[in-house]
Structures are given as structure tokens and as C-alpha cells.
């Protein structure tokens, strides 16, 4: 029954109030607490605090239950707050402030025979404090928003300036040096402004991306060799960023750097399949040759789906599918597309003609 | 000789403007540093503030997530937050692909990503996930966002899904499944068209066929099975995610 509510802590009591029915309110004096322990969250379980209690005194106020076989209660934090609440509750139990300060207001008990409805007047003071805290947080946020607006105004000026420069560059085609173009692009990159001249992806072709391309060539050589010479761009993104830990690459950084691999004569290249899938290949890798061995594998087994082929050869399903599709494009395989999946067969039309 | 003079002037003009931009950039960088020293935490801790921030950037034509080398990323740390989230999204989608064919609800993705991040990590909102996914599209892996019934389905495979497929996904969202009969009555399609679309979803592994249901065969979308939510990613599935 006490399923969904808000837990409040005062110097004297632990109070729970039902979220929907604000009249339903239960409380326990902190003096009743022997000790508390935490229970971590798990699969399908929320984080909890277990509150072990002294036996109830004989003059205890009426509550939701007259007695219990348990000497503890469990507070279940379904959304959040367990860590902070545990800390605060521990503090209050340690400090025992209720021994020094008399409770400011008395509790009025509704003597109805139904399960404990306590109209605790002390709640009002607590709510006022929460309201003040909320106002304070709001003030911080409004200050942040104000500063943010001012910052954005300045950023907007930068955008305008870059547009005006871009126009000048367009007018004076050929009279602006390549060096200056590169400089301009790097300014755009810093601000995150799209190149107004070519509308191409942000800051492509800057020194940063050139350096990045060279770095990638170094980092990816070994992983590529381990994976048969080819990796999807998402694999590369994850691999590189996991290795970096900090100062991660944006997806666009990666793509823009990879676009420069070939022109920088590095030993890797970017390739885009018909499906739009993007891969990095070693220059020494020849996907068309791999198709020949794929054909052998498929022939041995009679027919294969991309999943089956992937498992056999030890490739990702994504790349396995691309290889089979390429083989089909080259005429070595043909497909059987049914609801059971896409299956590839050796193209007997080719071999038996 | 006059031509050379004109050329010179042209270069000088551009040089002037570039110098001006460089100076203003330095000033802006200082402003941003000041902002970061006061409010960096706000961005880190407050998902609503992040939304405001992103929206304002978009309005003025700035993409703070375009590059890790951008000022925004370097000084506010927004970059690392979203790029790392991108990695986590890719991993979850890869691990679960064999279950759902590469379609997953934003809710389930959110739950699984939160689990993977552990309880001490920064909070992540659904809006954060959507922004990270929009950035991932450029990697060519087929990442897409499909609006269905008030939420979104996230596609993470390069399967082609056109308007017909999307409309059927939206229809199926209410109950988790759809039948040919329902498609014909709601959308007024011919049987052939409905069947074609459903078969495509079956082939991609995004739909499963239940022929034993009473009445019309039901096409279920594993992405929408609520019972499968918060099912842990198994070690085998996790291996799929990190090749």
C-alpha cells in the first residue's frame, strides 16, 4: 500500500507522505532507530535502506500497523536519492539532535479506526525549506541561462563574421591562398560552424584532420591485420575512442580524417559500399580477391546466410553481408530471398554456361 | 601591372578579415572559458540545461558536437559526454541486434545504456541519446530514428525502411504486433502491399511471425516486447558488441 511517495527527513523524524493522497502520512521518530544499512540495486530491484528499530514503546502513537513480526522497515528508492538520503540519515542518527531540541510542533492524531492517518503539522516547516531550496536552485539556473544567452549572442557574431568572410572568398576565387583557406576552415572547426562556401561537412581538410589521419594510420594497422584487413567505421569509432578515454573523436572528426587517408598516401583507405556502409581497409587488402575465397566457402556448404558465413569465417555479420553482396554483384553468387532469411548460393548460371 | 595590384588588394582584404576573425575567436574562447568555470557543472548534471544549450546553438547555426577539437567540446566537455554515449549506444545495439533485428525502442536503449554506465555515472536523458544517435548517422551504419506512437524506434542496421515500413511499425506499436487484416482496415491497403512490407520486416529479423494465434497470423516486433526489457545482456551478446 505504501508504494509511491516522498520520504522526508527532519532532525526528529523520518516521514513518508503518499504522492497522490497528501493526507496519508506516516512517521517514525529517529530515536527509534538502532542502525541503518544499505542494500544495493540489482536486476529488477531498486536500491534500499534497511532501518532497524527498537521495540515499540507501550505509549506509541497509533500507526498503520499495531504490531509487526519484523524489527526493521525497508525504504525502497525506485527512482533516485538513496545515496544522498543514506548519508543524511546517518548524519542525523549520529548527531542525535532530537535530544537537544524539543520538537517545534506537536502532532495531531486522527483517532479514526482506519489505518494511521497522521496530520503532522511539522510538515509545513519542511515544505517551506524545500521551497526555499528550490528557489535557490532556480536562481542558479536562471543565472546560468542568462550567461548562456550572452554567450550565444557572442557566438552569433562569430557566425555572421564567418559568413561575410566566406562571401569575400567566393568573390575572390583564386585570389585567396590555400593556406588562408585552411586557416579559415580551422576557425570554423573551432566554432562548430558549417563551411558556408562548400556546405561540406564541418572543417574537413584542416590540419587537424590531416594529423588525425596520420595518427589513425598508426593506430589501426595492427587491429586491421587482426581482423582480416577490413573494419567498419563504427568498429573503428568504438576502438579508437575506447583507447583514448578522454578527448574523444566526434563521428565527423573520424569521417573527415578518413576521407584524407588516400590523398595523404597512407596505407589505409576509406571505402563506401552500395548500402552506405563505410569501412576502412588496408591498402594491401583486396575485397574482390576475398570474394573468390568467399565463393569457395559458400560452395563447400552449398549455401550460406550472412550470419552463417560470419560465424564460419570469424567476421562481423555486417561485413560478412557486404562481402556476400559484393560477390553477388560480381556475379559469383545469387540469392534466395525468403521469409526465412537471405541465403546465398553459388551462381551456377555463370559456372555452368 | 594593374592586374597584379588588384590581386594584391584582394589578398590583403581576406587577410584582414581573417586576422579579425582570429582575434575575435580568441576573445570568444576567453568568454567560453569564463562561462565554463561558472557553469560547466550545470551542463554535466542538468539534462534540461543541456537541451536549452543545444537548442540555442542550433538557432544561431553552431554545432557544438561537430568536432572534438571544437571550443565547445574542449572547454565545456560536452563532446566527450556525447561521443562516449555514442560508443555505448553502438555496443548495446550490436549486442541486442540478433534479438530484435536492429530495431530498439528508445526506452529500452535508455535502460540498457544506464545499466552499462553503472550507478555512479552521470545521468543521461532520452534527449541526450537522440542527439548522440543523430551524430552517429554519419558513420554510415544505418543509424536512424523512427517516430512511433509518441516515442521513437532506433534503427541501427543499414536495412532500407521506407514510408510503408515506418507506417506499419507505427501501427504495430500499440499492441506490439499487427495483422494483415488490421493493416487493410486501418490503412486501406491491398493485401499484396501489406504482405510485401511485412515480409521485408520478417527477412530483416525485425518481425516474427506467430501463425498459431487465433484468427489472422500476427506479426510481432521483438523491439516492442515489453517482457524483454531490462533483460540483461548476456556475455555471449556482449562479445558480439566488441569484435
UniProtKB/TrEMBL annotation, chain A:
Location relative to the cell: Cytoplasm; Endosome
Record's keyword terms, sorted: Coiled coil, Cytoplasm, Endosome, Protein transport, Transport
An annotated GO BP: protein transport to vacuole involved in ubiquitin-dependent protein catabolic process via the multivesicular body sorting pathway
Main location, first listed in the record: cytoplasm
GO cellular component: ESCRT II complex; late endosome membrane
Function: Component of the ESCRT-II complex (endosomal sorting complex required for transport II), which is required for multivesicular body (MVB) formation and sorting of endosomal cargo proteins into MVBs.
Family: Belongs to the VPS36 family.
Protein name, UniProt field: Vacuolar protein-sorting-associated protein 36
Species classification: Eukaryota, Metazoa, Chordata, Craniata, Vertebrata
Protein encoded by which gene: Vps36
TrEMBL record, chain B:
An annotated GO BP: protein transport to vacuole involved in ubiquitin-dependent protein catabolic process via the multivesicular body sorting pathway
Cellular compartment(s): Cytoplasm
Protein name, UniProt field: Vacuolar-sorting protein SNF8
Taxonomic lineage of the native organism: Eukaryota, Metazoa, Chordata, Craniata, Vertebrata
Keywords: Coiled coil, Cytoplasm, Protein transport, Transport
Gene Ontology CC entries for this record: ESCRT II complex
Family: Belongs to the SNF8 family.
Main location: cytoplasm
Pfam families given in the database record: EAP30
